[in-house]
What does this fold into?
Amino acid sequence: MADSTIATDETTRLIASNKVEGTVVYNPDGERLGSVYNFMVNKRTGQVEYAVLQFGGVLGFGSDYYPLPWNTLNYDTGQGGYVVDMDRSTLENGPHYRDSDEPVHDMAYGRQVYSHYGVTYPY
It folds into this structure.
């Protein structure tokens, strides 16, 4: 039985996954790029490798999914969302997939994602 005093949403340094999912992602100009759909966690290290940004479409229909290296997202309390230092065209030309065509989230795919954004893949 869980202790009801345990923080389930967030603390000063931790946040629950359900509070991250749906959080808006902006570029440095304040333009809304999309929202965090989910994030991928390395089973062995427990580290988040990348966030999957839901982008495009209308009301979630016809959206594409764009994985972004986790360390490219910076939380901005003023905007109440994450900011990524990239323009829309960098994102649109990045690795992405449709709901019906999800890739194999293996190390090769992780390297491809990180490489597109000029970040060294840590695994």
Remarks:
- The chain has a mean pLDDT of 88.
- The first helix runs from residue 17 to 20.
